[in-house]
Amino acid sequence: MTLRSRLTLSLLTIAVILIVPLLIATRSLDRLHGKAKELRDGDFAGSLVLGRLREALNDLRTAEIALLFVRDERSRAAMDGRIGEVQRLADSLDTYGLGRQARDVRVAMNAVAGDIRAEYDAAVAGRPKEAERISSERVVPAVTRSDAAVATAERELRERTRERVADAARAAKQAATVTIIGLVLALIVAAVVAVRLTASISRPVSELERGMRDVADGEFGTKLSISPDRQDEFGRLAASFQAMSQQLAELDKLKAEFVSVASHELKTPINVIIGYTQLLQEELYGPLTPKQRNVADVLDKQAKTLARLVKQLLDVTRFEAGAGRLDVRPIELRGLLINLEEGFQVLADQRGIRFRVVAQDGLPETVHWDHDRINEVLGNLISNALKFTDRGGEVEVLAMPTDHSVQIVVRDTGIGIPPEQVPRVFEKFFQASNQDAANTGGGTGLGLAIAREIVEAHQGTITLESTPGVGTSFTLVLPERAGSRRSSAKNEPATAAVS
């Protein structure tokens, strides 16, 4: 199964698993909604009707009292209206399952309707005592029986409502429990699927990452645990990685052979030229005229420059090819700094430049670096600083501890570099436009490229900041214990500048 199919199937499985608790929750909510609707349309509505019925009975009492005293047709009509309203409300109680109470109220209201007519006739005929007797003995007890029926209906309705609310609460709790259990189970299953899916992807990716890291470090013989015969994307990647590693190994071998051949084929004729120019200068082949001696001096100088250029070019090429191994040994750090200060102090004094090396407290006594290579880097940086700093300027080397590393800053007050040239200063053969301002002749444009390769081979970093007319600062950060692996930096763009 391909990786795309596996991802699609896993995502669909997770989606289905997560939908199940949603369906359970939706069904539970529907049940709760039904119970809530029953309460709203049944018990709550019935409670409202009972409230209105109690108010209608109170109005009926008021109308009956008014009838005893006013004794007119209007009061009689009001009394009939109140009785009719009570009867209508009592009829509606059947809808809410209160038929027995509704029947009691209707019976009482039928009796009240007949007694009210007798009471009204007695009151109109001038028999107030008879009217009062009818009221107290027949009408009022009938209304009281209606009140009792309403009270009984209210109690019954409250009990029924309480039971339904309790049932709804139980249903809600049960729904919540079922939903939580379903969700937990779904999450567990989804987590298992996700972990298996992640493992099936992360392990091959980690293995490919390890292989690429080894290749970047120059180990082209790395074998992956991923079979190139796998019928998915990782199998194809493993096959491509294997083919790439073989091709890179062949190219690395060819490049190493080229470096070896170039070293021998270039250095030998250059040394011969230097040897013969020295013999000419010593007049071994006869005396030289002043013009001939001048030509011999120029040839000797240019041959030595060419020899230095070839050496530097072979150095940077060797590092890029992965053949520039480091000779890492314990170094007494303060001794290294003192030797640098003593070595360049005379040159700084000759050029009228203030030069000092400052070592902050907390520096490790011993570091594990390639002494010759680091000395070459620092010497190159200090030489550059002195070269591009005018008389009366200052060059400072500051060493400080930082997080199991050593930070070394080479700072000058020189002419600086134009900002647009800063990203290119570590490129091979690149020389900034400030070469004309150097106190000595320009270089080959390889010193900083070699410095970067050496620093990165120590698993360190080298950066710089430069402001035209203000000066330049190189910053090296080197671990206290550098590895001895080959450099893996391959022409990465620089991010700072020098003077």
Structure summary, number of beta strands: 7
Structural class: alpha+beta
Beta strand %: 5-15%
**End-to-end Cα distance:** 59 Å
Write down the secondary-structure element order.
HHHHHHEHEEHEEHEE
What's the number of structural domains? 3
Radius of gyration: 52 Å
**Count of helical regions:** 9
Roughly what is the average pLDDT, rounded to an integer?
A: 80
Overall morphology = rod-shaped
How would a textbook summarize the main sheet?
5 strands, mixed
Low-confidence stretches: 485-499
Helix content: 55-70%
Major sheet strand order: 2-4-5-7-6
Brief sketch in words of this structure:
This protein has 499 residues and is an alpha+beta fold. It contains 9 helices and 7 strands.
Description:
There is one protein chain. With 499 residues, the protein is of the alpha+beta class. The protein has three domains: 3-193; 256-320; 329-479, Histidine kinase-like ATPase, C-terminal domain (Heat Shock Protein 90, 2-Layer Sandwich), CATH 3.30.565.10. It has nine helices and seven strands; from the N terminus they run ααααααβαββαββαββ. The chain has helices at residues 3-70, 73-92, 99-124, 128-216, 233-281, 290-320, 333-350, 371-387, 447-457, and strands at residues 329-332, 354-359, 366-369, 394-402, 405-412, 461-467, 471-479. The protein has a five-stranded mixed sheet with strand order 2-4-5-7-6, covered by helices on one side. A two-stranded antiparallel sheet has the order 1-3. β4 (394-402) and β5 form a beta hairpin. α1 (3-70) packs parallel to α3 and α7 runs parallel beside α8. Mean pLDDT is 80; it is low at 485-499.
